[in-house]
């Protein structure tokens, strides 16, 4: 039917993806990619068909996080305009980091290239596509929101006041673009000292209550600093598939997936 054809032209290979979720942050280094990849694996473990799309052209993290830095993109033989996703443990992944030649891309071109990459990847039928967004709330992010129509967003932050101010910017950007913020993740909120066993809050108590009261954010997830998260990230094996389901870290990520 004609309607279907038009819709396919608009969404390309995203056509059969049921829900597209953006994982976003306003600053780099707060744990956005870590949350994105672990959320993807938690959903996969719950029995869903999942893909992850790395929309960060300037700092792609997904190839490192799944230890596939040497993977090379290929087109299916009969469909030269499509791209085969790189699969890892049942997760379909795509990143500009897999491209053989990485051209220098000027700002205005970024969103067009990222959108094209998302739409040409053979995702097939997916329940969820998690999009690891580039950090920030600028032109690139706004255009991506408009082109890849997100069903919801997860905003990742750390507990400092500066990060809190940015988180509001993020929520407001998604509000304006009619994308509901499904959850705010406060990462690195505390650590448990292995000497004294006490909980320490190196960045203060955080601002979650204020977010709940002022912005009506119902779902918040707090992730402590765990050396295992950093260790397995460096290894290229996300904790959600490494640690048993009963482990606190895995439980936190699966509660985020249930939200
Ligand atoms: P971003 O995508 O926001 O730039 P990353 O997800 O790449 O951030 O995380 C930055 C670094 O912090 C990575 O080395 C990652 O392993 C580490 N990291 C993230 N969250 C945690 C955590 N809760 N505990 C320990 N290390 C973490």
TrEMBL record:
GO molecular function: 4 iron, 4 sulfur cluster binding; ATP binding; ATP-dependent FeS chaperone activity; metal ion binding
Keyword annotations from UniProtKB, A to Z: ATP-binding, Iron, Iron-sulfur, Metal-binding, Nucleotide-binding
Coiled-coil segments: none
Superkingdom of origin organism: Eukaryota
Presence of the UniProt keyword ATP-binding in the record: yes
Signal peptide: none
Biological process according to GO: iron-sulfur cluster assembly
Family stated for the protein in its record: Belongs to the Mrp/NBP35 ATP-binding proteins family.
Name the UniProt record assigns to this protein: CobQ/CobB/MinD/ParA nucleotide-binding domain protein
Source organism of this protein record: Tetrahymena thermophila (strain SB210)
Lineage, broadest ranks: Eukaryota, Sar, Alveolata, Ciliophora, Intramacronucleata
Section covered of the full-length record: 125 to 383 of 508
């Amino acid at each position: 039917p004609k309607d279907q054809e038009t819709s396919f032209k608009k969404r390309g290979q995203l056509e059969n993806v049921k829900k597209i979720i953006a994982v976003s942050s306003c600053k780099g280094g707060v744990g956005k990619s870590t949350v994105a990849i672990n959320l993807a694996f938690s959903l996969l473990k719950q029995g869903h068909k999942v893909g992850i799309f790395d929309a960060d052209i300037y700092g792609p993290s997904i190839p490192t996080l799944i230890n596939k830095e040497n993977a090379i993109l290929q087109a299916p033989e009969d469909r030269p305009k499509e791209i085969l996703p790189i699969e890892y443990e049942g997760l379909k992944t795509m990143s500009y980091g897999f491209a053989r030649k990485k051209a220098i891309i000027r700002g205005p071109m970024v969103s067009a290239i990222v959108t094209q990459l998302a739409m040409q990847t053979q995702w097939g039928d997916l329940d969820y596509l998690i999009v690891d967004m580039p950090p920030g709330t600028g032109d690139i992010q706004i255009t991506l929101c408009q082109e890849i129509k997100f069903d919801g967003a997860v905003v990742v932050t750390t507990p400092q006041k500066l990060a809190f101010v940015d988180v509001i910017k993020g929520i407001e950007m998604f509000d304006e673009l009619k994308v509901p913020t499904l959850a705010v993740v406060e990462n690195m909120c505390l650590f448990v000292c292995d000497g004294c066993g006490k909980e320490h809050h190196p960045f203060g108590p955080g601002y979650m209550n204020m977010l709940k009261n002022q912005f009506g954010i119902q779902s918040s997830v707090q992730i402590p600093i765990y050396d295992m998260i950093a260790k397995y990230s460096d290894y290229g094996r996300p904790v959600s598939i490494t640690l048993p389901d009963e482990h606190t870290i895995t439980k936190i990520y699966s509660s985020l997936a249930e939200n």
